[in-house]
Give the backbone structure.
Amino acid sequence: MIDFKVIGEPIILKNARKICPNDIEKCMEAGRYGALRKAITEMKPEEVIEEIKRSQLRGRGGAGFPTGLKFELAAKEKSDKKYVVVNGEEGEPGTFKDRIIMEDSPHLLIEGTILAGYAIGADEGIICVRCDYIKAIERLEKAIADAYDRGLLGKNIFGTDFSFDITIERGAGAYVCGEETALLEMIEGKRGEPRKKPPFPPQKGLYGKPTVVNNVETLANLPFIISEGADRFLEFGIEGSHGTKLFSLSGDIEWKGLIEIPFGATIKEIIELAGGVKGGKKLKAVILGGVSGTLVRYDEVDISVDYHSLGVIEAGPGCGTIIVLDETRDIVDVTENIMEFFRTESCGKCRPCSLGTVSLCNLIHRIKEGNGTEEDLKKIEKISIGMRKASFCGLGQTAPNILYQSIQKFRDEWLAHVRGGKNG
């Protein structure tokens, strides 16, 4: 079982492991579905959207787009059908935060999904879960069935005109399906490839209808915002980054698991709360926000985890992963593993990504085999920049991030491999 910790007051993990997720009565006694009742019996949909906008909630899947604005865009669209799609694919290596929410707090996610549907005028929600998240699927299935039995899903919820249905879609766990339009293609039974944007999903999403696609953690924040109010939510975090954030901790660290922090805590504090670097070794770097995120050097970790501070070093919280690397890690080995992952996961839709990932892997292999040159490092940098500019979707645009940054921040190690051959 994956353990978890919190810094300060939790929002998402407040009742996790305290209340049996399969016991809807206990969950309701603890306040679950109270926000839903308040919203649909006391508030108009536009008032729900306004409250979410005031909370300054930003998407927790990686892009950080303002959630209330996304809802507003979908709500303004005129259509006979709208959808809420929950992105629980979670294909980023080292990420398991959404899995824990779905396993331990399924009713929290269901309530957040219904709230999103009410806000935008949708009557159907689809929760996409990767197929190997078996426990999460089982618990969501039971929670959805129990919610139907108690009239919290289906027709005329709480005796109102609002009706909402939720189904589960099992995903294959492909990395590219974490991209919202590729996810929509997969649900429609097509090959999971990203679509050209615009139009964006709030205008033309699932089956051509207005759709909001949100990460699991994002929607799990909605019950708190509606029940406690936006002002209460704004008390968490710091200016420009409000609320809390979940991070999956792994790598060379004493304690591995899930942690919930208020925005404003530093990476250093998070590592220390987890017991520090494993075996008392020195910290080399942290991979922040996933393998498509940012490589944070040991001398950069005393930085606040918030959108503004991390932006200064071209970083962000991303999908919520912290992978710790100790002093013994070979940065070339680390980047080789990451690029092999992206070479495998590239969907092949565009050449900059499909050919770029192969070329980068070949160059890394040549350097590791002792046949590389300093000119190869320049080629890696040139290809990486080209992929960022020319790839069709975020996968190709961000795939070379860690590799490129490793050359900028650990050039001496790369040069040692180049000049020292196999013994580099």
User: Anything to note?
Assistant: Residues 351-368 form the longest helix (18 residues). The first strand starts at residue 4 and ends at 6. The mean pLDDT is 94.
